[in-house]
Amino acid sequence: MSIFGWINDQLLRMQWLADAVTEGVLAVGLDPASRIGGSVHFFVYDVIKIFILLSVLIFLISVVQSYFPPERTRRILGGRSGIWANTLAALLGTITPFCSCSSIPLFIGFTAARLPLAITFSFLISSPLVDLASVILLASIFNWSIALAYVFVGLVVAVVGGTLIGRAGMEDQVADFVRNAPVHDTDETMMWRERLRYARDQVLEIMHRVWLYVLIGVGIGAAIHNWVPEAVIGSLLGQDKWWSVPVATVIGVPMYADIFGTLPIAEALIGKGVGLGTVLAFMMAVTALSLPSIIMLKRVVKLPLLALFLTVVTGGILGIGFLFNALTHWFI
Amino acid sequence: MIIKILGSGCKKCVTLGNNAKAAAEAMGKDAEIVKVTDFAQIAGYGVMSTPGLVIDEKLAASGKVLSVAEISALLSP
Question: What domain range is A264 assigned to?
């Protein structure tokens, strides 16, 4: 076996862990092939795997992130415009905070510094949608081509979405206090010790925030995996049903969860024959848009701009869903 | 003196608030700790990453949890 194959199977997919959990399930007298045994296996294996991967990944990414505090990102993006500036903003969005809750201060800071809306929104769309941790988790649960395709289309939504919003010329649709906010620039650099401390704190804080979502997500995943008949899922979200993508998107938009919680659900749905596009649309809808973040955003932008933002992002997610369903055979 | 902690009530903000209080008490300063959670007000200080620390209406730090010693250094004239 190639080195890469070994790394993929043992470090990312954690085949050793799957085997160990199988042993454990057998040891307590359950048959891994049975419903209960299968549910227990899915739950224990996924929970341990996601927590191990998350801790390692968040730590590594936080170290990278410590080189790009928001002030620096703003300086990098300042004075630029055009499609490459949007692309740069979307790329920077992938290495900045994991949580949509930190987007609002960033939005205010960018807008106050007179960055164009196109740039700001490219960044805001990509920031919760695509991050390095979710890419590697996608590679772990599915495969690398799905993970890379996810990044690519996520960036496309961010770039196109930001550009469309910029074209609409809604600079005046931002709350007044945002544009009048002071711009405070710092140029502090961290020492290595500080970076490591920052990364450790990030791991603790993010785990503290997401552990419950992960458990719930894995629980739902395990339930779908072993208890919901394929026919039921198929009749609701099956590949041949044109409404599967819109239904998945509409269910996902108001939900608030981290991508880490939605991955096990996605995994179980794929196993039941739901289209890849439908599953990706669900994941993107959950992470990019949520009721709490919409309510927060409502306070900094006026209704027409908010509506445009929601329309553009939802439209992008629907488009990706239909596209991937049509091209599923390329990936699985 | 008035020390303001900017942040939406995250764990880091609580820690920063406690550190600020400890630093002020250790230096025998009569400080009032105020928590600012409304992000319109937080934006008013030009802060993009929370928690932020404001000492007598002057932004002293943002985006990190300062230790008691670090805050003491900021508080000393």
Answer: 50-331
